[in-house]
Amino acid sequence: MGIEGRDKVKVLEAGAAALSSQLGKTVQRLRKAYNLSLSELSEQSGVAKSIISQIERNETNPTLATIWRLSQALDVSIERVLQATEEEPFLEKTSKGDTPILVSDDGKCRLAIIGWIKTVEWLQWYEFAADPGGILESEAHQRGSVESVSVNEGELDIEVGGVVERVKAGETLRYRCDRPHVIRNATTKPASAVMVCILKAAAME
Questions:
Q1: Which of 7, 54, 65, 92 has the smallest C-beta neighbourhood within 10 Å, fewest atoms?
Q2: Taking a C-beta distance cutoff of 8 angstroms, is the pair 192, 152 a contact?
Q3: Are the beta carbons of 70 and 47 closer than 8 angstroms?
Q4: What tens digit of pLDDT does each residue of 179-191 get?
């Protein structure tokens, strides 16, 4: 037997309220996972800060267009925004063949982009490999950016602002990369490392 009349309206209203509540929780959870402020999410999505705040507090029923803008800014599908729960895991697998590779000008250094391509504007991480004599020269990133290089094999010389530091296997060097910087393998053996670049780090004193 179907639900008709006022009972049907009550069921629909209850369903809409539950969906709206879940949407607000999901938007807030994803925003915090990306470490985005309300203002930053507003700027990236084109949705007013006040509207996002109301959505997170379950005080409004957003339009489909608004949900779509938020899903694009948070890099998830509309279905995921509407259906995700706090307990739902995020799993995404890629193969070695799908991993983009960048090569230095001398052809002796390789950067495998193992980070999420969707975060490339603010967070990047790579598997770095350098043949003997390899040199990777990089221009300055935006102000306040910080790079971290953890050497797994061999040794690397890292030059920033005229200062050179040798990093050996098992060691990590962090440095401001908002100025030209160079990574060299000045040894006769191959070297490898994990490189992480935070492009929106707070400016160091």
A1: 92
A2: yes
A3: yes
A4: 999 999 999 999 9
Question: Which 3 state secondary structure label does DSSP give 25?
Answer: helix
Neighbours of 13 (CB within 10 A): 10
Spatial CB neighbours of 157, under 8 Å, sequence gap ≥ 6: 164, 165, 166, 167, 183, 184, 185, 186
User: Per residue in 149-176, pLDDT tens?
Assistant: 999 999 999 999 899 999 999 999 999 9
Digit-coded pLDDT (tens) for 86-134: 555 567 777 777 788 889 999 999 999 888 766 777 788 899 999 999 9
Map tokens 């179907």 to a residue. 2
d(CA 159, CA 149): 12
Note whether 183 and 130 are within 8 A (CB). yes
56, amino acid identity: E
How far from the centroid of its chain's Cα atoms is residue 197's Cα?
Answer: 11
What lies within 8 Å, CB to CB, of 202 at 6+ separation is 144
Between CA 22 and CA 19 the distance in angstroms is: 5
Give me the helices (H) in the chain, please. Answer: 5-33, 38-45, 49-56, 64-73, 78-83
Nearest one of 164, 134, 162, 168 to 149, comparing CA atoms: 168
Report the distance separating Cα 101 and Cα 111, nearest Å: 6
Count CB atoms within 10 A of the CB of residue 127: 17
